[in-house]
Predict the structure.
Amino acid sequence: MRSVPGNVVLVGFMGAGKSACGRLLARRLGRCFVETDDMIVSRDGRPIPEIFLQDGEEAFRRLETEAVEALALKSDDVVATGGGLPCREGRMEALRAVGTVVWLRGDLAELLARARRTGQRPMLDGRSAAELDALYRAREPFYARAHLTVDTAGQGIDQVVARILAALRDTHAARV
Ligand code: S3P
């Protein structure tokens, strides 16, 4: 879609489908796909669970800051961010400055089930249902600062990508 200027940045909780939808969205738009988690891993050399285990969450969040800074060099990519990346002061503003930010909003039970099925996620380890609910609630106001919100509850990857494309088309058509 030539009419969508700049990067498209996907945000949302763990299990929202940022990677799977981002990859397909990039293909549909004919763009490169990048993930902030991959940027961190290739720069640091360790897998994310190891960074959390050895250095702690704060160290990982500092690496995220570097990844956000590096995004400024990207121009027409689709970017999937880690679930906690937007949830610090200034981060959403930095993301909004590099492109159109899309929140993949979902139903928490569904998000958690998907997150547990795919990959290791240190933020889920040892947290009770109440703690995960609190984490989600604390993060929502950050995600809500996205330019666009796409509901993913009960939707498959194809449907979500179709919704993202429609939302992008509408928002950018409205601006020209
Ligand atoms: C995290 C989410 C992960 C990854 C890290 C921390 C979080 O990414 O960045 O484990 O704080 O929510 P996904 O959202 O892709 O699972």
